[in-house]
Automatic annotation (TrEMBL):
Provenance organism: Limosilactobacillus gastricus DSM 16045
Matches recorded under PANTHER family: ABC TRANSPORTER G FAMILY MEMBER 20 ISOFORM X1, ATP-BINDING CASSETTE, SUB-FAMILY H, MEMBER 1
Keyword match Transmembrane: no
Record's protein name: ABC transporter ATP-binding component
Tagged with keyword ATP-binding: yes
Domain ABC transporter: 16-243
Amino acid sequence: MSDHLPKEKKIMTARILLTNLQKSFGSQQVLAGINFDVEPGEIVGLIGPSGAGKSTAIKTMLGMEKADGGEALVLDHHMPNRQILGEIGYMAQSDALYESLTARENMRFFGQMRGLNHQKLVPQIEAAAKVVQLTPDLDKRVSGYSGGMKRRLSLAIAFLGNPPLLILDEPTVGIDPALRRQIWTDLKRLRDQGTSILVTTHVMDEAELTDRVALLINSQIIAFDTPQQLKRQYQVDSIEEVFLAAEQTKEKD
């Protein structure tokens, strides 16, 4: 696995490489020197309790928050770096949509912001909307959307442009189980085509679907491996049980 690669090799291959990344808000340390990587063509899950620092890790690696120490390399660039943001499909935990516009207009706006020309954008809007089952509602104003529909639209926007790196913060919150299964089928298809995908999730069943899982507890990544290896390491049958066992171990330290 990539965990055993020397650092210089990781820099050449990893699409995300965090080295001793640190971030505090006042006296509260949120990231206590985390090390983390996402390779081409893999899905990595970042899981942890609310407030563990998952969203902060994402915002810091993207340059939305300034790190206090350590290093974040994304697509071989030191972050922050605005020039590469167009190559990243990012879905935030909170939807940032223009509610007075239709879904299609939102997708067109964000696609243009990513540098996609009109000729490429039209078919990509249709394809992304189909994945998240929004095609019948593309020309409705977002103000009339339910919370789940807004999450689906945010995910569709992240897909635009077929970026080499997807960073998805709780992408399936509020989405029904059947559609969630379909979205994961599409994420795996993108992975098999070489896309790198980082997903945060509270749904432990989803963590089972990733190639590697990082457990972020008390500001630190305390385990990072394949779901199968983590279950063997903690001698349990599910990632949910891995998480509970790791949390208990951390509390005893």
